[in-house]
Amino acid sequence: MRLSVVLAILLPLLLIWPAIEKVEEDLRTIPPLDPTSLSYCELETCGYIEELGIEILTPAEIRESAYGTEVWVQVVNTDRMSGTRQIWAELRSPEGKLVEGMRGELELSNSGPQFIRFFFTGQPEEFETLSFTLAY
Questions:
Q1: b/e per residue, 64-98, with b = 16+ CB within 10 A?
Q2: Which CATH number do you get for residue 64?
Q3: How confident is the model at residue 19 (pLDDT cuts 50, 70, 90)?
């Protein structure tokens, strides 16, 4: 009786072990930012970014803090990448004038919601009037 209980527990675990190893092997490391070769996209039009294996979800979440405005951009890790990479962003006025440059850090893993957090020194109302472009 005890042997059958032990086998009933161990046998399924042994059978799924190779699948677990395969999933962990499939994780690829995200390449670091190369400042000499940047690609740009406006937040609303980014969608799936093949080079990074991620999909950008819009709209960004705006949170006011004591020192300025936090901009949270959610990403979906569609290609199961892992690691950390800098993402740059710029805010431009409707006339195209650079208002502020920002740097965020994307940390990818195989679970949970994942965000790029940027910090903007202006107010949320001002952010809404600006064009938000990612550089990756």
A1: eeeeebbbebebebebebeeebebbbbbeeeeeee
A2: 2.60.40
A3: low
